[in-house]
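Q:
Got a chain?
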Amino acid sequence: MKNKSRISNIVRTLCFFGGIATLCVAFPRRSASGDSLDTVLERTGKYVSSFLEVISETNCTERVLQEKLAGNGKVVERQESTFDYLIILSTPGGELSLVESRIAPEEAKREKKPRAPLLISNGFSTLFLVFHPYYSASFQFAREGEETLGGRALFKIHFKHISGTRSPAALAVRGREYPLDFYGTAWIDPTTGVIARLTANVDSGMEDVGLRALRSDMRFAPVAFHHSQESFWLPEQAIIDVESRHQRWRNTHKFFGYKRFAVDTKEQVAEK
């Protein structure tokens, strides 16, 4: 598509680097408030469903810091880029599809020799799809207690993908896709279903296709729009660490300057 530096189907492919695509049972327990895990999961599923409509009506600025690391963790190469960022939601044939769009600033497009990317990581801001009804049956969930973040008492909910079932993320290598069996933890407000933080990891079973480990940490923060008294928890920061057999990368994505837009279609009939 014109003027789009990169568009990827983030439901299926998380990230790409080096010219080879590599990443682009409920246990009901009751909290002090009396909410069971099943109740909180149902509430979170409804929140995520409505959240998709909000995030597909917003755009923001994304700043990406790409770093290549040595074995001792020291940064040996780094690159920073800024994009206009938005997520496009569609449901072709009843299937959930999200497309992530990054548009480079005009000055970056005019560079005579564009810098080669280190690690391009896409789709991590949408890992909340773990709790969407379209995907939630593909995961096991368990309570890990409670934790206070920013003065809010949150449930810590562990999730683990069930191998062989539908996954919201895939590893793509040389034109072939491998669904990711990832696991992690989400920090969720049990009253509203809002997700404040989400971590996801892959650390075994993928070395035969070049992936040794993948770790991501996604933070969300409240955003208030003009003409609205309600705040929406939108992606604020994502940190992704990737290890292959011989290399290691760390990408930090920061999202800010959110604006909400709406598309109205009007039809006018000329008077005779």
In short: Residues 6-24+27-258 form one domain.
